[in-house]
Amino acid sequence: MRRREILIFLGGAPMILPAAAGAADVFPSRPIRLIVPYPPGGGTDIVGRVLADKLRAILGQPIVIDNRGGAGGVLGTELAAKATPDGYTLLLVPTSHVINPSIYAKLPYDTVKDFAPITMAASTSILMAVNPRVPATTVRAFVEAAKADPKSLANYGSAGVGTVFHLTGQLFNELTGLALQHVPYRGGGPTITALLAGEVPLAFETTLSLQPHVRAGTLRALAITSPKRSATMPEIPATAEAGYPQLVTENAYALFAPAGTPAPILERLHEATVTALALSDLRDKLREQGADVVGNSSAELAAYVATEIPKWAALARQAGVKPE
Fold this sequence. Notes:
Elements lengths: L4 E6 L2 E6 H5 L8 E5 L6 H17 L3 E5 L6 H8 L7 E5 L2 H8 L11 E16 L8 H10 L6 E4 L5 H13 L4 E4 L3 H10 L4 E5 H10 L3 E5 L25 E9 L4 H15 L2 H9 L2 E3 L4 H21 L6
Parallel strand pairs: 3-4, 3-5, 7-8
Antiparallel strand pairs: 1-2, 5-11, 6-9, 6-10, 6-11, 6-12
Helix pairs in contact: 2-9, 4-11
């Protein structure tokens, strides 16, 4: 097939230009939609809004957050997978993105093939928090209280089936011998609302989401699921020192575009995102809330996805979580 060309006369001299050169818009030329597959208020939403604020200035276009909660992030993720691959729809997902293939027997998208990796934006540890009415100030005290009064301390909340918080709770059950029932919500925001109201006595959520409530005294953090204490919340013991060294999990936030997005656009988006993540005020804002900025290459994010899917499949089997 011959390339189409446009013949242009300038001062009597002809110039030949590719037709596409005059037709192509400079990216981006209009607002970009950033799908967050959870309701407002959770860790993914917080990271998305902090990042969108900086990308708006760098790219020169509004970054519109589109919260699409439901089914552990599957509904919003499917929407992104089926979007036009032109760079104007992006997806920010937490670790549940690589867990869901082990939780759902059939997903409406392919976790690897339907998405083009851009970068991992940040990662954060997970807090184990209780409603202040719960008579426990340590993990071991909670376990003892739950065994003594299983009716009052019968369940735990999470941001949905297949989330890292769900599996953290199931792993907690296995390690402690408890049989807490999982109560899934439509995201971190609704989970925290339920915990504040006493609908559930316990929840696992990110430091990003829970820290303000713990600081205010409206919730009590028992431990952070990491090998060591957090620099931003040094008063909270790590699960490793609390007697549960196997209860170590984290939540990572990764940015994707639909598969098929042109390489130059992906490169532009990666460059802009990494530039935003390098800004000191953005890094400080996330670090103050317990998140560490990453900003790696698209190849490194692709490798992360490839290694994390089988890792979480093994953990799901270990925790007794079966596909639905």
